[in-house]
Amino acid sequence: MFNDRLVLYVARLTSSMEKVGQFSRLENLHVVSFQFFDAFRESPNYRHKVQLRNQEQRVYFERQTVTLIEVNKFLKQKEKFEGDNSRIAQWLRAIDTLNREADFSEFATDPVFKVLQNEVKLCNFSARYMRCELMKDFDEAWLKHRTACEIAKMLLEQGKLSVAEISAVTKLSEKEISEL
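The chain above was modelled as a monomer; its predicted structure follows.
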């Protein structure tokens, strides 16, 4: 579900760059998503760059990038990433220092941290935002679909109704029911 929402948020950010009835060259859109769960367990990296690519793996639109940051992986393996002096790594260290209420003086005058602090626009999709009115329809549709799938599974297990009948009851396609 997180991936669905992230794609939706990026689409909303992209669409908000244009005024209705006008079209001009799109601005760069680089979204940084801080994840507090392991999205890429097999990967040794904490930072993952996502872009649209074609079948030859050529970047389709290089001015739009989503960078997924696995915060827990970075913090749990601090020693492994000790030599990483990227802006993201430095920002994560600064945030960790603030969260631990440790001495922040090394970051207070750091020019990279000042750039990040002053120039990066951070869209924080907090739990509160995710529950807000903008996401209500998405959440309701997702919940209805999940409930329909659970009902369909139960009806399939009972074996009393055909796939077509289950489709009529749950409003799922016969293909979706067959894939359960």
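The chain has nine helices and three strands.
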